[in-house]
Amino acid sequence: MKALALVCSLKPSPAASSSALIAQQVLDKMAERGVTGEVVRVVDHDVKPGVEADMGDGDAWPEIRRKIADADILLISTPTWVGHMSSVAQRVLERLDAELSETDDEGRPAMFGKVGITAVVGNEDGAHKITADLFQALNDTGFTVPAQGGTYWNGEAMKGGDYNDLDETPEAVESTNSTVARNAVHLAKLLKEKQYPAS
């Protein structure tokens, strides 16, 4: 089985990223269950604005889309900025909108049978709202969200500090990362064995 993490940090590689760190932690938990993981830091690629599968010359989304199609599990990881997901995460959702018109050979939406999960970091409030928005968008485009399919960390409000700077992963986040990974892999296996009915 394969998992793809789309890291929606505003920081290009190789800058340290809290969104990348928590995404890798969840992938590592899935790796313990035999899942191969890959990370794509979206800002490193020229993903054009739009709602089509391919926005033309120079658009990097078609290659990312191919990776999504090859994966069983999609993780979207985003920082919190002014209480919202990053603009990069919003662009990913806008590009996923094209999947509403894509179907498989039996007429099912192309993303049916794939699991969608989330990770949110920030030193301000907003993680629950961002998670809800991501869940709705993933579900709309055909992904299945498992029970407790999101993990997050928020630092103390009105203070600096990044998840990336912590000496160790807080116990609650560690436990939630494990739950997200475990439930995502479980659900992906079930969907692989028994796909949704054809239309």
Automatic annotation (TrEMBL):
Source species: Amycolatopsis coloradensis
A GO MF term: oxidoreductase activity
NADPH-dependent FMN reductase-like domain segment(s): 1-147
Name of the molecule in the record: Flavodoxin
A Pfam family of this chain: FMN_red
Gene3D superfamilies xref list: 3.40.50.360
